[in-house]
Design a protein that fits this description.
231 residues; alpha+beta; QueA-like; 4-stranded mixed sheet; 3-stranded antiparallel sheet
């Protein structure tokens, strides 16, 4: 039985290059209810966007400008990439939202595996940019028993009690209790700390949703820094 009548699978008959051309010519980004005006494609892409796999904006990486990435590299932070076909986090259909996130594709380059192993060897930490990157890395690690390069699909759902094997912490937006993204954060930080961080963010006027503020979450840090909204 289908999960929901609203969940469909599309197959395109044209060549891949032609499909992407048509999507860029005629498609529109996901439009969020809390943003009044239509969004431009550039507003929902990160500065380091590459292959157009994601259905929804990878919002955790939006604050990472070229200047910030360069500053991180100058301070000795190694930057690695991967591709993850992040799906929608919510569509407003209670029946379908209850089973999200659905299985998603990922592709991890060999260089990324090398950098992760090097970080581990020197006692460093692996910080994922966004909950979707956590899912890709942890899903790939569980498939093979260790992080390996290559493409795959993960249906991994991360929540309280989950023991991360690859990721030590993550940059993430502001998430509320009851959301699947919030449950993923509980794999890294105890709920009282998360609740305290959310309460502080509300008092300080931090923004949530896709164009909101970004936090650094990990087992030994719960920090947040406000930034101006871009929408």
């Amino acid at each position: 039985m289908p999960t929901s009548p609203r969940l469909v699978e599309l197959r395109f008959l044209a060549e891949e290059a032609r499909v992407w051309t048509c999507l860029y010519e005629h498609g529109e980004p996901v439009q969020y209810a809390h943003v009044a005006r239509p969004l431009r494609l550039a507003e929902v892409q990160t500065r380091y966007a590459s292959r157009p796999w994601a259905a929804e904006m990878p919002s955790a990486g939006r604050p990472l400008t070229a200047a910030i990435l360069l500053a991180l590299r100058r301070r000795g932070v190694a930057l690695a990439s991967l591709t993850h076909a992040a799906g929608l986090s919510s569509i407003g259909d209670a029946e379908l939202d209850a089973v999200l996130p659905l299985p998603e594709r990922y592709d991890i380059p060999a260089r990324t595996v090398t950098l992760v192993e090097a970080a581990r060897a020197r006692g460093g930490r692996v910080i994922a940019v966004g909950t979707t990157v956590v899912r890709a890395l942890e899903g790939a690690t569980r498939e093979a028993g260790r992080l390996e390069a290559g493409a795959g699909v993960t249906g991994l759902v991360i929540g309280p009690g989950f023991a991360p094997r690859c990721v030590d912490g993550l940059l993430t937006g502001m998430h509320a209790p009851g959301e699947s993204h919030y449950e993923l954060l509980r794999a890294f930080v105890r709920r009282p700390w998360l609740d305290a961080a959310i309460a502080h963010a509300e008092r300080a006027g931090y923004r949530n949703h896709e164009f909101g503020d970004t936090c650094l979450i990990g087992p030994d840090v719960v920090a947040a820094r406000a930034r101006p909204s871009a929408a």
